[in-house]
Amino acid sequence: MQQDILVNWSPQETRVAIVEGGSVQELHVERTLERGLVGNVYLGKVARVLPGMQSAFIDMGLERAAFLHVADVWQRHPEGEPPSGRNGQPQVPIEKQVFEGQPLMVQVIKDPIGTKGARLSTQISIAGRLLVFLPQDDHLGVSQKIPADQRDALRRRLTALVGAAGGGFILRTNGEDATDEELAEDIAYLRKTWTRIRDSATRLPPPSLLHQDLNLLQRVLRDMVSEETQTIRIDSREQFGLLAAFGEEFMPAAVGKLQLYKGERPIFDLYSVDDEIAKALGRRVELKSGGYLIVDQTEALTTVDVNTGGFVGARNFDDTIFKTNLEAAHGIARQLRLRNLGGIIIVDFIDMQREDHRDAVLAEFRKQLARDRVKTMAAGFSQLGLVEMTRKRTRESLAHLLCEPCPVCQGKGTVRTPRTVAYDILREILREARQFNPREYRVIASPKVIELFLDEESQHLAGLSDFVGKPISLQSETAMGQEQYDIVLL
Predict the structure, then answer these.
(1) pTM of the predicted model, to two decimals?
(2) Residues 204 and 168 sit within 8 Å (Cβ to Cβ)
(3) Short-list 239, 280, 268, 253, CA closest to 4
């Protein structure tokens, strides 16, 4: 399917939209002051070792200590044998590999998400245009996306190019048709980068940043361009020049797809990208047939509920459900990419009685997920009719990046009713009356709560005033949220 990439740049943030078939499929946002950490290499210091969890916390100079699990601690192993801890081999305990206060070179493999710190690995990997360099290994591999009958020949070419200098390399998918000269240039660039990292590690004290991954604009050329990409349109003349220069050096094949956008309309208006962003931040997603999805994101997992809504177009109820679920399979796969949802995802398709319908919906869902550049895995229908799946999570979701918890409901999604708040106030006045002896109580609350006291709850308020023997006055404050109130003792 043909693909266009739109880049909207400003000094504050870079926004990238990937458009396929006329609709937005992916959104990427990077703010100058909030760049992701994935791929960065640090010289950190071991702050704490937890043998019971087989993990350690590493101080990298960030707001929160980062997390290193024993499974992510690199160990050299004989060529041809799997790393320790797999296939029954014993894993060396973490307390025998690291100690508190130890300087340690680490790489971020997951950004800090929510209340969790970054996740780390001690196995360093440096991504180039055509290859991924594993400086601590000697393994030479080829991307699994390259056809199996071509991998052996590519591995032999790679072995000859790497030579005696060693180091591990993995050929990326876009390196399948690369010439020996292009591969040799990428090998030289990656080795030079690793030399610079090692030199910095000997000179700088922990914690220090040794290597920073490419910014979003550069990653567009390295990671997002494919054979299906027709154009890469960017609306900044300055960034267009910088990206073209970067592409000429590292990705010359992609430079021809770069275009400077000179239109008067904002570039994202071409495909209503801002409208898609607004929709991607909502719970409800409308389907063309009249059905809809409800997407709820929590700390532990994401749930997607499919509903028929107003769709009554099929000849019978079973066909209505089947067609809604087929359309939902497309919509869910797109929403996962659009919202950058990761981790555990539970999909509640509408219950289908026929097994062939369930098989067809699951097959279509997996087909749409296969178009995702991020690794996904979908299981079959469970006994409860749910589809459990996972999608690799490395960066914050779109909602976490662009939004923050509501200051009124504190992220709960609901607020207490004015009557509930009013009764809380009455109980609080009673508590205050047992401890203090003011001349008067003044209630300051939101207009809806005050209105309730003046109308339906006026009798209860008067009864409490008589009971405590003090007058109670009311003051409306429009700046207060519905749950907020103050009781002032005068």
Answers:
(1) 0.70
(2) no
(3) 268
